[in-house]
Specification:
CATH topology of the largest domain: Rossmann fold
Number of helices: 12
CATH superfamily of the largest domain: Response regulator
Structural class: alpha/beta
Bound molecules: fe (ii) ion
Radius of gyration: 35 Å
Largest sheet: 5 strands, parallel
Distance between the termini: 71 Å
Length: about 290
C-alpha cells in the first residue's frame, strides 16, 4: 500500500544540525518524510510546494528568524493544519514564552536528544491528526445537513404543488391556471427587483392562492351559469377560507410550529388575491383577523 508519509520540515541555518536530525530520524523513515531548509525563505518555499504536515524551526538564523516563519504560517495556514515547534536553547525563557504566545505547539531544546525529539514529534503529529479528523468530520456533517435540508425543501415544494393541483382539479379542466399564475407572479416579483429568496417564496406561495375553493360547494363552484348575488358572496369567501386553512394552528394545544415565512406569504396571497389595485375589498382582511 502506497500510503503518504507524514512530512516534517526542519529549518536551521546550521547544516550540521540538519544532518544530525536526519541521522536521528533515519529509523522512522518508513512513516516520516524529512525535508530540510537552511533559511526561513527556503522553508516557506518548501511549505508551499510540498504540503508539509509539521514544521520544526530554529529561532536564531541570519536575515529572518523562527518567529517570523511562525508568523507567516499563522497568516497563511491554520496551525491545526501546519503545527509549529520552536528549537530553543535552555536559557531562552523569554523566547519560549513568545513562541508559545505566537502559536507554537511545543518547544524543543538544543542540543537535540533523540528520545526527546521523537516524543515531541509524535505528540505534535497525533494532535494534528486528531484535530484534522475533527475538521473532516465537521465538514462531512455540514455536507450531510446541507443535503438533507435540500431534500426536505424539495419534498416540501413538491407537496405544495400537489396540494395546489388537487385544489385546481375541482374546477379547472385545463389544469393550467395555477402554473400560469405562479409563472406570472414570479415574473412580476422579479420585475419589482425583489431578492431571490423573496421571489422564490412568492412564486411558491402563489400556487395556493385558490386553496380556499375547497370550502366552496360544487353547486356553486361548478355552476355553469351566472351566479346569484348570494352565490357570488359565498364564492367570495374562498379568500378568507384559504387564509384560515393556511394560518390555522396545527398543534393540538392550539399553537403552531413556529414562524413559517412561506405559509405566512401564502396566507397573505390567498386572502388578498381578489383585491383591486386600489386595495378595495380590503374588508375581507379585517374579517379574517
Ligand atoms: Fe380566487
Amino acid at each position: 500500500m502506497n500510503e503518504r508519509r507524514t512530512r516534517i520540515l526542519f529549518v536551521d541555518d546550521e547544516s550540521n544540525v540538519l544532518s544530525s536530525i536526519r541521522r536521528l530520524l533515519r529509523s522512522e523513515s518508513s512513516i516520516w518524510e524529512i525535508f530540510t531548509a537552511d533559511s526561513v525563505d527556503r522553508g516557506i518555499e518548501c511549505i508551499q510546494a510540498d504540503e508539509i504536515d509539521l514544521v520544526v524551526s530554529d529561532f536564531n538564523m541570519p536575515e529572518k528568524d523562527g518567529l517570523e516563519l511562525l508568523g507567516w504560517i499563522t497568516k497563511n495556514y491554520s496551525l491545526n493544519t501546519v503545527p509549529f515547534i520552536m528549537l530553543t536553547g535552555n536559557a531562552e525563557h523569554d523566547l519560549k514564552r513568545r513562541a508559545i504566545n505566537a502559536g507554537a505547539v511545543d518547544l524543543l531544546n538544543k542540543p537535540i536528544m533523540k528520545e526527546d525529539l521523537l516524543a515531541r514529534l509524535r505528540n505534535a503529529i497525533n494532535v494534528r491528526d486528531y484535530q484534522k479528523s475533527l475538521v473532516d468530520l465537521n465538514a462531512e456533517l455540514e455536507s450531510r445537513v446541507e443535503e438533507r435540508t435540500k431534500e426536505l425543501e424539495s419534498s416540501r415544494n413538491e407537496l405544495l404543488w400537489r396540494l395546489a393541483y388537487a385544489t385546481e382539479a375541482r374546477d379547472d379542466v385545463t389544469g393550467t391556471h395555477i402554473d400560469s399564475v405562479a409563472r406570472l407572479t414570479k415574473q412580476i416579483a422579479l420585475s419589482y427587483g425583489l431578492i431571490r429568496e423573496q421571489v422564490d417564496c412568492i412564486h411558491l406561495a402563489s400556487m395556493l392562492h385558490d386553496i380556499g375553493k375547497i370550502a366552496i360547494p360544487d353547486s356553486i363552484l361548478l355552476k355553469p351559469g351566472k351566479l346569484t348575488d348570494d352565490e357570488r358572496k359565498h364564492m367570495e369567501t374562498h379568500c378568507k377560507s384559504g387564509w384560515y386553512i393556511l394560518t390555522r394552528p396545527t398543534n393540538i394545544d392550539g399553537s403552531s410550529s413556529g414562524p413559517n415565512q412561506l405559509l405566512e406569504c401564502a396566507a397573505e396571497v390567498a386572502l388578498s388575491h381578489h383585491e383591486y389595485w386600489d386595495g378595495h375589498w380590503i374588508s375581507i382582511r379585517s374579517q379574517g383577523r
